[in-house]
Every structure is written in structure tokens, then in C-alpha cells.
Amino acid sequence: MSTPLLVTDFLHRAREFFPGREIVQYRGGETAHRYTYRDYHDRVLRLAGALRELGIRPGDRVATLAWNHHRHLELYLAVPLAGAVLHTVNLRLEPGEIAYILGHADDRVVVADTSLLAALEQARADRPDMLVVGTDGAGPGVLDYEALIEAAPPLTDPPPVAEDDLAALCYTSGTTGFPKGVGYSHRALYLHTFAACLADGHAISERDTVLHVVPMFHANAWGIPFAALMSGASQVLPGPHPAPADLARIIATERVTYTGMVPTVAVDLMREATAAGTGLDSLRALVLGGSPPSEDLVRELEERLRVPVFQGWGMTEVSPMGTFSRPLPSSEHDATARRRQIRKQGRLLPGLRWRLVGDEGRDQPHDGVARGELLVRGPWVASAYFRDEHPECFTDGWLRTGDIATIDPDGYLEIVDRAKDLIKSGGEWISSLALEQALVAHPAVGEAAVVAVAHERWQERPFALVVPAPDAVAEPADLLAWLRERVPRWWLPDRIAVVDALPRTSVGKIDKRALRDQVAGGLFDEVRGRT
Amino acid sequence: MSTPLLVTDFLHRAREFFPGREIVQYRGGETAHRYTYRDYHDRVLRLAGALRELGIRPGDRVATLAWNHHRHLELYLAVPLAGAVLHTVNLRLEPGEIAYILGHADDRVVVADTSLLAALEQARADRPDMLVVGTDGAGPGVLDYEALIEAAPPLTDPPPVAEDDLAALCYTSGTTGFPKGVGYSHRALYLHTFAACLADGHAISERDTVLHVVPMFHANAWGIPFAALMSGASQVLPGPHPAPADLARIIATERVTYTGMVPTVAVDLMREATAAGTGLDSLRALVLGGSPPSEDLVRELEERLRVPVFQGWGMTEVSPMGTFSRPLPSSEHDATARRRQIRKQGRLLPGLRWRLVGDEGRDQPHDGVARGELLVRGPWVASAYFRDEHPECFTDGWLRTGDIATIDPDGYLEIVDRAKDLIKSGGEWISSLALEQALVAHPAVGEAAVVAVAHERWQERPFALVVPAPDAVAEPADLLAWLRERVPRWWLPDRIAVVDALPRTSVGKIDKRALRDQVAGGLFDEVRGRT
């Protein structure tokens, strides 16, 4: 019973049991490529052979800088099969950050989309020995992916790999300091894959067609590519720069049954599908993660578009899935209870443990009221960073998530804030998340963000930025009156600024760090709003 | 990410997330006890404390000789929590075999039902230091289970356990030689539990109420108790000697959604439910394992009783589950294809690998025709026996299952015979299983068994024994005419004997070994039938 747990087993499984299932590659809402797991398997073996020919040895890092497409999916398995570590690089990072990350990971090869090569210039200058492969063609100093596959013998004698060896690596952008690398062992990804396929979890199965909206550079695309391989689900990849209209069309055309995304993308998709009348009813599950969705979004998706919504909480350090918000069986015929449960981030996946730790290091009760920082541990939770010491991120082997949460008596997690997004005013905490949710509940508000601004007397005070809903006019005075009925008086923002858009992080969340900088830099001083 | 995989984690999970779910204990078709996972957890901790007080140390073996009841379920978790090994002993074995097994395993304690104490006399004489605990009361030299729990402090500081440490142990009765012990590590049971809860596998979930018909002394009751704990399914235990009428009533009363059993028990259940008009329609899955069911059984269950039927293949050495017969998605609306697939033993569970090896050690094609011995390996497949060398059972780390099978192009396994049940006549193989299936297809036949008898000229020849269907008359001459149209002429049994019943093994399968002995001993010489 000592067989190692290797994520590459799922490649062999897909070849043996699901040879005819399809991988479909879109580009701008049109099919660009369509092939089977049989072909996929054969190409992965040749790609792994090509990596060996390029000199890749067990333990080496191979970076990718690519959108969601079938070649990226081939790299997901070919790199670990070659015994190497798949290092997916966030394509929205600044060239300097990319150069830092590639240097820190000491990548031997980077496989990149041609359209993204410019972002690699600094990294290439820093690392002249690093080989560059273009997923969609050759160029100066750039090898051609297809030519490599064409020329390589299939890797039929993969190097021996231990289950604790790294299969993948991903850097978190973080909010302070340098990006931190999270290494994923074969074992961690293997167990995470089983968890993704549990009947009570995401329940990825052979009957699914999954659409990868989550970027493949982001925490293994939530691990869904591995889950699809293991279970024989069809996979659909939207290609570069998928627009909301493309996503809606793909879901309808391919009869997609499962997809996951951040709420901001879901808002765009919902608006698009509503406006164009695109049916999304093939979806058995739309899973929202990354940040809590508004009540409106969940209601619109479920009631108007007939799309069952779930939430998950996770983070790069958790491979990334930690919870899933499947409602209690007793809520099946109780719409209110069901909605209340899916509006939370859900219960912990089997295999993981958690704690809720208060200010003084004491464990808090799971009563749905007491708040604390969420700590987690388990076989797919990081207990260290790649080549860096970050003792502040761990406590006795537990990962400190930085999320402030409650856990209710049924075991449902609710993230109430990021530790660093809490606003400390006059010695008391103000929840920026609660303020944002109250603002978004106003019909004229599309999106909202609340950040702290330094204050001489109170230490910090809240500053709110809102984007109006389409065709709506958001008046700061109205919003303030609205908030007055919903939050403690001392929580009322000192200023509400109405803006056209909010800055996004590279994974599509609202970029609080950038916002804080912009606010501090006086960027919004001229914007109309309450002063 | 180095957290160990411990099956005791599921106990903590059940307490945290499913404290109110129920465990229900029946006796003779009536509720005998009903309590929650919260109470279960507390009693398990006290039981583990009691074991420590009795002197149980990490690695010690604790035997059980018990029916399916809540105290047995408590031992399932309390023994591993104490760091010890749960050794479930088959209560249908002869006292001499029980004494051998308890001696071989060197059990420190045995926990037994009072009604089964007689079977322990020889073992107790052999092992005077072995402590005996009665699940339902004290006696001479027998400690009382409830008194121990009452007196013991909860084990809140369980000993450290590594994932490769054994959590359980089970002996296979085997057909030759002494029983062999199969040890299950925490890791193996943990991974097997995840496999049991996959959406494409048994899919045990929080929405289930599972009924443990499979004896708890048999290969961890297929691992379903652990799966129920992990997922929060309610558990129902039928108690000692469950009659078919009891099982039918329990399913209807408790609205059981999932159960598994051997086909012979399912036949009785089906007849009982049909005769009494008991609705079994709460079942979302009735899983058959242990031996292939007849076509009639599957059809009657599905068409008349509206019970979805699945099959699994497994064995004690596979923890025990190896395959599951969920039909292909493409068969969902094709009743014929669906039926054909669930009549096979199904596809391999993720995490396992298999081979089909022919006579000369060559791998056979998976074409649904070529036959070979099934070899398996994986993280919950035995690669050795407990304290015994059996090199003949393993080939390069692969378990030799002794099952002769085909695998079709869709990946569905079909067991066509046990290696030792094949009949070699004139240098050619005759399949006893195929003959049995042809006989059972006759309306007058309830059950059939075919064994080899020694033959001077042909080496071996088939001998058939049939039990008539209820109220039917089975005439050997008719059966022979029936077979003549269905099997090769040289397969026709030399003799067909009509009998009232067939001997059973301790797990309810037809006991071919006993039958061969009886046939060779002339037991059926006086039985009417073709000579």
C-alpha cells in the first residue's frame, strides 16, 4: 500500500478510461481547436520528451506565461511528468515583478504566449541562459512549441518521482514585500484533486463539461484541470482575453455544466447573459471564489438565470480550495436557509482542520458571531514558502490566512474582512467588507471599495469609493443616508467618492493596495463626493 | 503539507460538522438505540480511554467478534484513536480458525457479543492473558463494555500515529491453507474513504442514510462506516442475524438511500420486498459485490422495485473497493447499454492501476474478449500480508487477485471466473461461472453452482448443483436441454443435482470449497439428477 500519490497518474487514467472525451480551445468566442484525451495524452508525452531534450532534469522549474489554452493544459501535466516543477507566472504582473519571480524560482525554461513576450524582456536580460519557448510560434531567441513536440520522442520512461516532490509552484502577489512562492507537491495536488471530486464538494464528474475561467496562472486554476482529468470531464478553455460575451456564448454552445470565477467576472457574465438573452441553464454549478459576492449577484444568477450558485474559500497557499458552501440537507426545501448558507463561504473540505484565533491568541467559539483570524492546516495547505522564511505566516504548523472570519454553529465560514483591510478607528475595528456590502446593496451602486485613510485623531477612518450601477446615478448624500440606517454611526465613511472604475489585481479582485496608495496620493481629491 | 493522513480525522470531522446526524441501531427489525454523532464521538473518546486503561499500547491488536451494531461502530474509531489496530474477526468461522487467527494476530483484547462467546472458548484457552470484553454485559472472565466506558476518562491526548501505521486488520478465509491477514494503514483507509465519496464512485454524501448490511467483520464493511463519518451520512445498523424482512422494513422506515450487499442477500431482500409489498424506493443505490448478480436480479430490482443497482468489485486485499459500475454518461438514455454496463463489475477507481495477465505472463488487450488474471496495485491495495510471506500472491508489487477477467474498450471489468474455479477438461478451460449464469437464467432455477470433479480421461469435468426457484420444479433433463442451446457441447455438466440449499461461506457467498469436498465425498450420489 506504499504506492506514491502522483498527480501524473491522472494523465494515464484519462488516456485509459476517457480516451474520447474532448478538450476544446476557444479564441474570441469561436472554437479554435478541439481534440481528445487520447491525443492530449500523446502530445503531453512528446512535450515531456521535448523538455528532457531541452535539458530539463528532475526538480528543475519550468515557467509558463500564458492564457488559458490547450498548450497550457499540456504543460500542466508534461512538466510534472518530466519530473520538473510547473511554475505558472501571473501574466498581469509588471515586467519587474516577473523578472524577480523568474529569478527567485530559478526557472530553466519559460513557455510563453507570443503576445506576452514583451513582459519577459527584463527577465530574459537578467537570465540569459533561460530558454524561451513560444506557445504560438518561434521568434528571435524563441523556440517553437509545436516544432519541439514534432521533433521529440514521447517520454515513455519518466524519471522516478516521490510524492513529496514538487509538481507545481505559484507565487502570491501579496500586499507587502516581495511575492512569495508556494510549492505544491504531487501528494498535495493528488489529494486536492480527490477533494474536488467529492460528492459533497465541487463534485467534478465524468458527466461534467468544465470551463476554465479562473486563469491557469492562478493557483492551478483552482485545481479543476486535474479534477477533470481524473474524472473524465470535458474541458473547455476560453483562450486569451475572454470577454463576458465570449464566456456566455461558450457556456451555451458547449453546454458547460461547471465553472468557477471571481464575483466581478460573474457580474459581467450575468449582465451580458441577461442583455443578450444567452441561456446559462446548462450550468449545474457556478462557484464563486476570491471574494464574497453581493446578495444581488447570487439572487440574479439563481432566480433570473436559473444557475445554481456555490461559494468556495481558498487561497494560493491552500492549493487553493479550503471550503465549499453546499447547503445543509435540511435546507434543501428551505430557500431562505439555503440562500443564507450559500452566501457564506461554506464548510471545510474533509482532510483539513481550522481554527479561529482572536486578538490574544485565544480560540474563538464557532457561534457565527465571534471573530478571529482563520488558521488552517492539512495535506494540501502550505506549511512553508519556497526558498523563503516567513515565520510570521505560520503558527505551530498552522497557516495564518490573514482572513478575519466567523464560523457558525453549522460549520459555515464567513469571511468578514482581511486582517489588513480592517480599519482601526479610535481603538475599535471597522469592517471595510461590511461597509462595502452595505453600499453594494444600494440599487444605484455597482461596486464599492472601502479603504482606511490615516487620521490624526482617530488613527484611521474609512474612505469609500463606489462605481454606479449601469444607467444609475449614485449620489454620495443618498448613500450616506442609506448607510446611516445600516451600520453603526461611527462607521460612516468620512468621504464617499463616485468613480468610473476600480483598480483590479492581477487575478481580478479589487486592488485595495493600489486604492490605498491612490487615496493617500490624493488621486480622488478632485472627484465629486462628500468631503 | 506534510500533515499525516489519519482515519481518526473523520471522527473529529463528524463531531465538528455533523453533531446532530444520527446512528440508529436495530434489533430484529425494531429500533434498539438511536443517538447522534456528538454522543458517538464522546463515547468513542471514553472507549479509547478505557482501552488505554486496559493496557492497550500503540500497535497492539484489539479483536472484535460482533454483529453490526453501534458498539462495533464505536470500536471502529476508538481502537485506531488509541493507536491500536482494530482486528475484526469473522463470526462465522469455526472456533479452531478463530483461535488460529487470534493467536496469529496476537490480540491483547477481544470485544465480543455475548451470543458469540462460545466460539471463543478455544482461543481463550490458548491465550489465557487475553482480556475479553462483552459488548452486551459481563460474565465469567468477561468485562462489561458499558461499565468500562462509564469508568474511563476520555482519551483527549491520543498517542502520535504515523499514516503508515496500521489502523485495522482483517483475515481472508481463503480457499487453501491458513487464513491470511491484511493490514490496513491509516493512509490506506483514509484514501479509500475519499474514493468512496467521489461523485463518480459510491458518492456517499451528507444527504445519505446508509444501511450496513455487509458484515462489519468483512473488510471494514466495505469502508462505508468511514465514508459516512467523513461525509456526515446517517448510519443504520441492523443488529444480529438480520432477516430479509428486517432489512426491508429498516430501509422503508429509515428511508435508507444507500446500501451494499452480496447478490444472495439481495435475492432474499428482493423476494421479501416483493412478497410483502415493502417500498425500497428511498434507495438511490443498491451496490452488489462479492460475486456477479444474475440478470434477473438486476432487472427485478430496477424494473419492479425501482431500485438503481450498481456493482463493485473488490476484495479484502483491496480495502476492499477496486471498481464501481457507474454507466458511461452516453448510456444515460440508453437502457440497454446502461444495463450491459452495470452487469459488469465496473471501472477502476481513481488512484488504482490494473493489469490483465494471460497464461504466459503477457498483458492481454482490453477488448472485452481476451481473458487474463486481474492484477492490481495502488495506495489501498495490499503488497504483503500481516506476518506471513506469500510471494505467490504478488508479482513485482502487483497483487494477484486470482480473478479471471476481461476488460472492455470502455474500461469495464467483467470477472469471468476465479482462477481456481475454472474447470480444465481435455486441455481446455470451462467456465463454471458461465455455466452457473446459464443455469440461473432458467425460470425454474433459483441458484446454481458448478464445480470440477476429477475425471480419469478428461482430467476434470463440470458437476452442477441447482436450487429450484420458489414453487418451481427443476428437472435436470430440462436444464440440460436448456444448456445445450447456450453453451458449447463439451461444457455440458456430467451431472446436474437438484438440492434444497447450497453451502455458504462465512460472508454469504456459495462455498465452492465445501461443495467440492462434498461432491468428492459422494454427498450428492443419492440426490436425484442426471447421472
From TrEMBL, chains A, B:
InterPro entries: AMP-bd_C, AMP-bd_C_sf, AMP-binding_CS, AMP-dep_synth/lig_dom, ANL_N_sf, ATP-dep_AMP-bd_enzyme. Residues 321-340 are annotated as: Disordered. Residues 435-509 form the AMP-binding enzyme C-terminal domain. Residues 16-386 form the AMP-dependent synthetase/ligase domain. It holds the Pfam family AMP-binding. It is an enzyme of class 6 (ligase). One of its GO terms (molecular function) is ligase activity. Keywords: Ligase. The keyword Transport does not apply. Coiled coil: none annotated. PROSITE patterns: AMP_BINDING. Its EC number is 6.2.1.-. This is Fatty-acyl-CoA synthase. It comes from Amycolatopsis thermophila. The lineage of its organism: Bacteria, Bacillati, Actinomycetota, Actinomycetes, Pseudonocardiales.
